[in-house]
Design a protein that fits this description.
The structure is a single chain. The protein is of the alpha+beta class. Helices cover 65% and strands 10% of the residues. The chain has eight helices and four strands. Strands 1-4-3-2 form a four-stranded mixed β-sheet. Helix 1 crosses helix 5. The radius of gyration is 19 Å and the shape is elongated.
Length: 189
């Protein structure tokens, strides 16, 4: 087996683990809070943004954080608004931009949802461990290994160097638009 096929095999194993964990978290969030995983992730990102000094987030950045297209993210924001989790107003400084306010209900959802999501991930990892899933990936996920973010980035860069191409060329393209276009200003209520 060549190194490339070993890399693909490991990547597929990681993808399977990711889908199993994501499915488990999605089910729990839907059962307990009536939210999809992407809706919950959007609230988490918006809440994190609200707690920063800038309080600004571009729609394409939110989309990248939750793994959706900009148009799907725009629809998701509309759904969150319809469910009373956020309110939106046109920004005074730029009519293309939107001010988003997290509602008190969103605060309650986050205070219940974050521990619920954490518990769901831990349970899914435990089940996967008992099933004999890829232990290296699971150790990295739960932090019981010598791996850390720098080691992961270094390993990713090494793979990119071997293939003579950036692993995610679209990531560089996004940076070109980081300071243009409509923005979301986020505040907690």
């Amino acid at each position: 087996m060549s190194e490339g096929s070993t890399l693909i095999t490991r990547w597929r194993a990681m993808d399977r683990l990711h889908r199993r964990i994501e499915g488990s978290v999605e089910r729990r969030l839907h059962e307990e809070l009536g939210l999809s995983l992407r809706e919950f992730q959007a609230l988490v990102v918006l809440n994190q943004c609200a707690s920063t000094a800038e309080g600004w987030l571009y729609l394409h950045d939110l989309a990248a954080e939750i793994g959706l297209s900009q148009s799907a993210t725009s629809r998701l924001v509309t759904r969150l608004q319809g469910r009373g989790l956020i309110t939106t107003t046109t920004a005074a400084h730029d009519r293309r931009s939107v001010d988003v306010h997290l509602s008190p209900v969103a605060g309650e959802v986050l205070s219940r949802g974050i521990p619920l999501a954490d518990e769901s991930v831990r349970h899914a990892v435990q089940v996967l461990t008992e099933e004999g899933a890829d232990r290296v990936l699971l150790r990295y996920l739960v932090g019981n290994d010598h791996w850390n973010d720098k080691a992961l980035l270094r390993a990713t860069a090494e793979v990119a160097d071997q293939s003579n191409s950036a692993p995610y060329p679209e990531a560089n393209a996004d940076k070109a638009f980081a300071s243009t276009g409509p923005a979301i200003s986020v505040q907690s209520s």
